[in-house]
Amino acid sequence: MPPPRPIVDGMSRVPWQTHVYRNRHGRGVRTPMFGVRLPQYRTKSGLFDDIVASQIRRLSSAWPQLVKPVQFAVEDVPPVQDDVWQDTSSTTSRSFPAQHGVPARIVLYRMALQMQVTTRMELQWAIRDELVSRIAELYGRRPEEIDPDWGM
Fold it and tell me: Does the pLDDT of residue 108 top 90, yes or no?
């Protein structure tokens, strides 16, 4: 029987700093499939949040006085309402005007938007169109005034 290995030596180094480490049964190599900084590591929800943030930055650079006072949020699905059959509002986003010290808010629903598109470029356009239409709705303007490329 070989002598036991000291536990302290194995505890001093994290597994990814060792040359090769095995799974708990000692059979296979447990290394990441790809680096954590590569694009494949991003989840669909993380990618969606990145697109929303970039569109908000783009709109904020063009219209800082309109975008700055608005709070933006992303939720997975719209909330269930009692009058869901009579509701004619959009299921992809919703805007809430400012009231009683609460700033105006725009909420995008990730799953509803992702189900309507097939490519990443279409998702970017859909997010852009939703944000522009909701900002225009909050301020009583036409979406074409906010972004001339809206709806294209």
Answer: yes
